[in-house]
Amino acid sequence: MSTPSSERPAPEQPAPAQSADAPQPPVPPTRVPDRTAILAAVVAVAMLFGLWGVWRVLSPSRSPTGQIEDSRREARGQQRELEQLQQRVATLTRSDQISRDANRDLQSTLAERDEEIAGLRADVAFYERLVGSTAQRRGLTVHALKLQPQNNTAWHFTTTLTQNLNRGAVSTGQLSLTLEGTRGGKLEKLAWADLRQQPNAPGLAYSFKYFQQVEGDIFLPEGFTPVRVSVRLVPRAGAPIEESFTWADATRDIAPATAPPAQ
């Protein structure tokens, strides 16, 4: 059934056109962010970063256990370095001691060599005086006398006898000593028997062609101060020979010219 015309909707009428001069509706303004809020946000972020950096700097980077382990490793390293330095010191000290000992031994050896050279030179001079082409011909004589203390009363003596007058001839005989000195403010002379502390003590025998060293011991009584010592030679053939030396000369530290064993 058709709808009555009175109930039909009226057709839409187009909106009347607005003229250019008609007022436009207001446009809502664009919302601009607040600058203060942005600045505050930036400051807050900067503060957060600053606090984070401070925390990284001030806060321990390792746990206490890690720090203890690092300290132990450092202590072990220092101990090893200390032991190495101590070993080097010990090595250098030992090397220095060895050098000192070697230098001391060398100096001692050089001193011994100097003594040997001096002795050899003295021997050469002795031989030249005795058997050289220009040597003076002399008969039996006491070339030197040396006395060395053994204790308070005992003395060891060494005499060097020479002769080059009768070449090839053998000189034989006996040797004895006598001492002159003082005791208790008085002059006194000690015979060979007194010095040997033996009644009728025989002299020491000698026998040589050119030279010989004769050695023996004598004993001085308590309180005796020697001044002069005499060596008496009694050859098998010929008159006795006597040579005197002051006690100071006979007891000097400088050794007289020595000679090899009897020839």
UniProtKB/TrEMBL annotation:
Residues annotated as transmembrane: 37-58
InterPro entries the UniProt entry points to: DUF6776
Protein name: Transmembrane protein
Renumbered residue ranges of the record's region Disordered: 1-31
Superkingdom of the organism of origin: Bacteria
Pfam families in UniProt: DUF6776
UniProt keyword terms in alphabetical order: Coiled coil, Membrane, Transmembrane, Transmembrane helix
Coiled-coil region(s): 68-123
